[in-house]
Structures are given as structure tokens and as C-alpha cells.
Amino acid sequence: MRKIQINKKMAALVFIACAFLGAIGQLFFKFGAAGITSNIFSWIFNWQLILGLFLYGIGTLVFTFMLKKADLSFAYPIIATSYIWVALFSFFILKEAMHLSNWAGIILIIIGGSLATRK
Asked: What's the whole-model pTM score?
């Protein structure tokens, strides 16, 4: 089996994609939550919930595979960008309120993630 070589920039892009997939999955969790009840069938046949689980799962599988190629201390600050994606989706798609503290948190995550992934 041929070993795949991956550089740091490519790894970062893959981790960003994983965070993005996870955030889209969480967005579909939110959409699906509107249709769930105490009836198990409202969970099992909820296409939005199923799609959310699928997207979140794909992101998790790719993330796990990529950990063979990169340090967790490099990957995890990038995965933290999922908070940014979810906040932006919540604001622009769900029309949820964003306060100054939310925007400050996003800026701090960007700064912290940039510092944590530098060598």
C-alpha cells in the first residue's frame, strides 16, 4: 500500500473542510430538531437529522484518518473553526442574533488558532 504524503497547508485545508462539514451537519441537526417528538419514528425518518448525522460523520471520519498524518495539537485548533462556521450559519441562515461578544469570540478563535498552529 502506497503511503500518501501530505503537506501542512493541504492538511490544514482538509481539517477546515472537516470543520465545515461538521458545522453543516449541526445546521441540519437544528432543522431536524423541529420535527422530533417522543415518538422514535420522528427521529428515525427525519431526513434532516439523518443528513446532519451523515455530514457530521463524514467530517469525523476524514478528521480521524487525517490524524494519521498530522499532530492533534495542529488539527484541533483548526477544528475549533466549526464554532465560527456554526455562528455564521446561525446568523445568516437561521437569522439568530449575534452580539458583540460573539464576534469578539470569533476573532479570538481566529487569533488563537493561528497562534496554536504556528511552529
From this structure: 0.87
